[in-house]
Amino acid sequence: MDLRQLRHFAALAENGSFVAAADVVGLSQPAFSRSIQALEHSLDCQLVDRSSRELRLTAQGLLVLEHAQRLLLGAHKLRNELVQFNGLSAGELRFGCGPTPAQALIPEALADFVRAYPGIQIDWEINHWDALSKRLLEEQLEFFVADARDFLGDPLYQVQVLSPSIGCFFCNSGHPLLARASLTLSDVMQFPLVAPRLSPSSRRAMARVSGRGDFRATVECGQFDAILRIVERSQAIGVATRQALQAPNERGALVELRLDDLPELRFSYGIIRRAGKLVSPAAQAMIAAIVEADQRQGASASGASQ
User: Fold this and answer.
1) Beta-strand runs (E) in the chain
2) Cys-Cys link to 146, which of 98, 113, 216, 270 (CB 3.0-4.6 A)?
């Protein structure tokens, strides 16, 4: 058994046929079949049910596939991290974040990172918090940025809390609410609400503010640009942080709503890693860039509020 054979077997399982898998790995079909047969011989078991017209793995095949995927991932991570120890001139980085940090914080940090380390290949995933946490535990991501409150105290995660973000409601510049001399939360709740998919802690915070038993937006969306477009083209009210809304606000198309009875709504974002797991040098550098960008944005927000 060697990694090459395991890679061939994983390709077979992924592509569903000997012909397609052989093409993917760049072998002739006879050579590919011999590689799978050699793996079966070395493990002394049958991996593929050859009596079926469709490709099916045996029970032993499914077990081998599970271990093969872990071994191949581990080998890839080892090569990647060894390359990065030579000065971050090459290698790859995989991380994720929620829709709100993706609007301002992460692009600013990524700009700094790309300037400093142009040779690193980056796979940046924008998704909601529960999908990102699953990807982290499966070791498909090295870290992600999302609402930290649901991960604090969980032994599976290590959390580095960032500066608090202030939440707000916003609408388009022609919205009828802007004609009123004063606004309350009940006025806002008469309109459809558009927001990213919120974590349980954020939903509870929004429920307390809105006086509801639970909070669900009329439209939940994983792409912040889509939320902005919906609000720009309808009477829906958007939910965001002031940092995320800053750039769209500069264009004048969107306006933050100032409510007389709205208490300060805080979102607590953080950098979330697997507890007890070392991250690659590239991940360490990216985390440092995020922290620096967060500090700059926090200082800018404090100056603007004074």
Assistant:
1) 92-97, 121-126, 144-147, 157-161, 165-172, 193-195, 219-220, 237-241, 254-257, 266-267, 269-274
2) 98
